[in-house]
Write a structure and sequence with these properties.
heterodimer; A: mainly beta; six-stranded mixed sheet; five-stranded antiparallel sheet; B: mainly beta
Chain lengths: 111, 114
Amino acid sequence: GENVEQHPSTLSVQEGDSAVIKCTYSDSASNYFPWYKQELGKGPQLIIDIRSNVGEKKDQRIAVTLNKTAKHFSLHITETQPEDSAVYFCAASTPHYKLSFGAGTTVTVRA
Amino acid sequence: DTAVSQTPKYLVTQMGNDKSIKCEQNLGHDTMYWYKQDSKKFLKIMFSYNNKELIINETVPNRFSPKSPDKAHLNLHINSLELGDSAVYFCASSLSQGTGNTIYFGEGSWLTVV
């Protein structure tokens, strides 16, 4: 099955700096890569996603990049704010519909 | 209005007991899921139903039994609870089972087995 690895497991950044989270996947058939944000005491919520026919996607301060050849994708958050503090999960989905999650990255934005 | 709602939010129970977690979605979605999140925050799918039919059944002890009376509800019943069952259980739904569909999660049910 699909195996998604996510790094780093924790990330502390100064407010205003950028944060980058990287993920790799194992199944070359994976074609959908969402990112979820989980705030304390809440369920994960989709923040951005990218499909295998696109190399990059941006939405305001967040962007995702995908390198299909290397089988890795990344989340970039620019101008971080305290409300960006949360656990972020990458995921990969194969055409068999099962979504596999990375282990999560706890992001702390220092004021 | 809450899109995916699950009850109870917190549950503390003794080993050996049987308990249920209920889930309802008002999004009109066809597919529903149960995920387990352990103490290290790792999210793992347990079950997936599409239009009341089981489509994903991961390696989960048969003490866990999902039931979907209709496509808007997916309940999770756990028999003979063990200490290792302590976790957060998330119900979720998506428009359909096809890849690329956003999965909407509930707020989670915190289960503690003592």
